[in-house]
Design goal:
This protein is of the alpha/beta class and 239 residues long. It has two domains: 2-126, Rossmann fold; 135-236, OB fold (Dihydrolipoamide Acetyltransferase, E2P). Helices cover 28% and strands 34% of the residues. It has seven helices and 15 strands. The chain has helices spanning 11-21, 36-46, 62-66, 85-93, 105-117, 178-184, 226-236, and strands at residues 2-7, 27-33, 50-54, 76-82, 97-101, 135-140, 143-148, 152-158, 161-166, 171-174, 188-191, 194-196, 201-206, 212-216, 221-224. The strands form four sheets. It has a five-stranded parallel beta sheet with strand order 2-1-3-4-5, sandwiched between helices. Strands 10-9-8-12-11 form a five-stranded antiparallel beta sheet. Strands 13-14-15 form a three-stranded antiparallel beta sheet.
Length: 239
């Protein structure tokens, strides 16, 4: 059984896709999401085999959502799009699965046949926007906050998970792994448990045994481990 997640902000589009998918008895719909934030949580939690992903979603597009996922473990993606000549050309050149809205049954059947044959995920890193985070989704009580990079002081990995500390000193949990944030944001790795916004570094204080600390404009002290000290000095032009 091929497990499917549908991600689309349009209720009618989700309903139509569910209707035609239900005729394929070897595909199981395990959930629907209306936005990228819901989808990231559902993908990490439920591990679908295939995601039917709408590109044109508000706030965070489908392509931007891919930057929030681990590309090594993500499911196979079938992109959903209204007619866009350039997007279609890009998908065809990169051999990605896509469906145009409204969905054509013959084209849909062809996509299902391909999904039955090919289970390996695509290399979505080649898509522009899929490898660079512009904002970090953080979770508060009854809401999701999208922090822009200039609003981030540093990020810390703790026992309870990864937390983003804002320039105002507020702390927010995020579902994104530290290595994803390191790879896809300008945040600088200074310690195995910390990333720091370079623009928020006020001072570097050198201590004993080749160690150092970062003092931020927000008044925080962040450790620098030996292995990251040389790259940080080079990045900051310190000789």
């Amino acid at each position: 059984m091929i497990r499917v997640l549908i991600v689309d902000d349009e209720p009618l589009a989700r309903k139509e896709l569910r209707r035609i998918l239900e005729s394929a008895t070897d595909f199981q719909i395990i959930g629907e999401c209306t936005n990228a934030i819901e989808a990231v949580g559902a993908i990490n939690r439920d591990k679908p085999d295939v995601v039917f992903l709408d590109i044109q979603m508000p706030r965070i597009s489908g392509i931007e959502m891919l930057s929030m996922l681990d590309h090594d473990t993500m499911p196979r993606i079938v992109f959903l799009t209204a007619y866009d000549e350039y997007a279609v050309q890009a998908f065809e050149q990169l051999a990605f699965d896509y469906l145009l809205k409204p969905i054509n049954q013959a084209r849909f059947d062809k996509t299902l046949q391909r999904l039955r044959r090919e289970r390996a995920p695509q290399d979505v890193s080649v898509l522009a926007g899929a490898n660079q985070l512009r904002q970090i989704p953080c979770f508060g009580q009854h809401h999701v906050l999208l922090l822009k990079m200039e609003e981030v002081e540093y990020v810390a990995s703790k026992i309870a998970g990864v937390s983003v500390i804002s320039v105002n000193g507020e702390e927010f949990p995020t579902a994104l792994a530290l290595h994803i944030l390191q790879e896809r944001t300008p945040l600088l790795r200074c310690h195995r448990q910390y990333l720091v916004n370079v623009e928020r570094i006020k001072k570097i204080h050198f201590v004993e045994n080749g160690l150092a600390e970062i003092n931020t404009y927000g008044g925080h002290t962040i450790p620098i481990s030996r292995r990251f000290l040389a790259p940080i000095k080079e990045r900051l032009g310190i000789v």
